[in-house]
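Good morning N.,

You mentioned wanting to compare the apo and holo forms, so I went ahead and generated the holo version with magnesium ion. This is what I fed in:
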Amino acid sequence: MQQAGTIKGINSESNDMLGFLNAEQYEAVVTLDKALLVLSGAGTGKTKVLTTKIAYIIENGYAFPSQILAVTFSNRAAREMRERLFNLTNNVDGIWLGTFHAVCARILKYHADLVGISREFTIIDADDQLKIIKQILKEVNIDKKNASSIASKISRWKDKGITAKDSRLDATSREGKIYKIYQERIASYDSVDFGDLLLYVIEIFQKHPDVLQKYRGKFRYILVDEYQDTNMSQYMWLRMLSPLGQGICCVGDDDQAIYSWRGAEVGNILRFEKDFPDAKIVRLERNYRSKGHILGAASFLISHNENRLGKVIWTETDQGEKVMVQRTYNGFEEARFVAETIRALHQKDIKYGEIAILMRAGFQSREFEERFMAYGLPYRVVGGLKFYERQEIKDIVAYLRLIYQTNDSLAFERVVNVPKRGIGASAMAKFYALSREKNISLYCAAQEILKTGALRPSVKIALQEFLELIESLRLRKDLRLTEIAETVLNRTGYFSALNQEQTLESQGKIENLKELLIALENFEDLATFIEHISLVVDSPKNSLDEVINIITLHSAKGLEFEAIFLVGWEEGVFPHNLSLKEENVEEERRLAYVGITRAKKYAFISYALNRKIFNQWLSNSPSRFLSELPNDHICHIKHFPRPGG
Ligand code: ATP
Ligand code: MG
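and this is what came out, ligand included:
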């Protein structure tokens, strides 16, 4: 092992940076001559080791920044790592730091011609992917309701490194045939999907040893964060770049493997020693992030998983506060508990940006957003849109605005052709012209134009139906808001279109819309709701440091906060309904472990006895994970502070 002190040219700054490390971390940073795996629990400084190691390599001239490849699991994680690096060394220009996808896209740009696409190829997202598969299904007379399951099957094959030409693929199966057609189709569009980014680069490496050699020579050091969540094709790609493990350093934690549903294989991390017999394995045991009670609760919870390596983890800090568990009567009360506790924390000088609400699914954000707005607490929804900014919510709200006030031309514009009813640009041009000429709203203009012969018959019928729907609902003063919105969703076919799509995304939209229906019950009439909405949408923008983070458990991986709220700990919500099959419960438990270990000082867990989910009151039992928490480290809160109290 090289000792930092003996290295020629080491400057005092990097000595300082090493001085902060414990002995194991130090060893991991300065070991450069063999494959290295850091396998350890949450908050033990794995990411810190990675960033320090990069700085150490650069500062001591072991490699230029451009010879270092650092892969992280999300763009945000990459950004954070870059920031942490900047604090250690300002010489980071040229370093290859990004997600697997981003790095592969960059390599593919240089060599696209080798796999028959142009350098200007486009990257298609999951939505486009689904559209193309639907097109294909239509051509081969298969019901398009299968599209989403076939799309995910294709993605899983790609995660495993199985291309459409692979002999392991059952080319006679229905999915296999569609995979082949799909692949030809997107190639003819000069497009690649996310999985292709890796597969094409692997193909180039396999067929063009000279290219592979170039990258092997180029990347002297390869560092991978969150290695437990890599999939097979990412693994193959890494193995090609570093067949003997020279210069490779992977860090991860098998207890935090939470992406198996997306093809991640925790086996990759468990196999490391077999892959590289010469490898050095470093285990970090000291946690620097969380107070004792928090760490104790998390460690005990994860010990219920049978499928794990098991690790020692300890902290030198004091025990701190116990993990506080709050039972509430319903979801509304839960949100009130969270909002009031945040106020109290803020008074104790905890910054809003140091507080996070960790939820299992996106639809849960709404209840908290409403409360935060009512209390004037600034927040953001990390990695997603705020509830009332989501497309499907804006659509239905635009319908409500139009019903409330037909002069609202922005609302008219938004929904006149949503869902698509054939009222296209040429009809719109006529509405615009008349509205300008007579200085009337688009809605009035449309009404007038309907009476003339200016529109094609099919457009005329569609417009008539649209206007009739709005008019009929305007007159129904007896209907509750929820009923109005429901009528819109059903009569326009908005719901059924989403239902047909059957994708995770459309499912999320349906969940959001059902959540909107619940929200609408809190308003007397359209006027108060519209006023509420305009306040929500105009809420002042705060700088990122000063806002509470609402974030899903999955995207909270790697992050840390002073205080966290783990909400909705009820069977069916968390563990999630879809994961209740036994083999998935362990992954949900890992998610709970990831959640609790995000906290430095305070962790609150809450559950509601009654919860309205999708317009139906449910009384789910408390999450099984609550009963798996150790009594020594938790405290059940009887009351929570009332306003002013
Ligand atoms: P996770 O498993 O959640 O990704 P991790 O193992 O990557 O966690 P880090 O995020 O690197 O852990 O470190 C956790 C916290 O501990 C950070 O705030 C980091 O700055 C701090 N930390 C790590 N090592 C040390 C150390 N030797 N001295 C002081 N603080 C440290
Ligand atoms: Mg980390």
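The pocket of magnesium ion (ligand 2) is lined by residues 46-47, 558 (CB under 6 Å).

Happy to go through it together on a call whenever suits you.

Best,
F.
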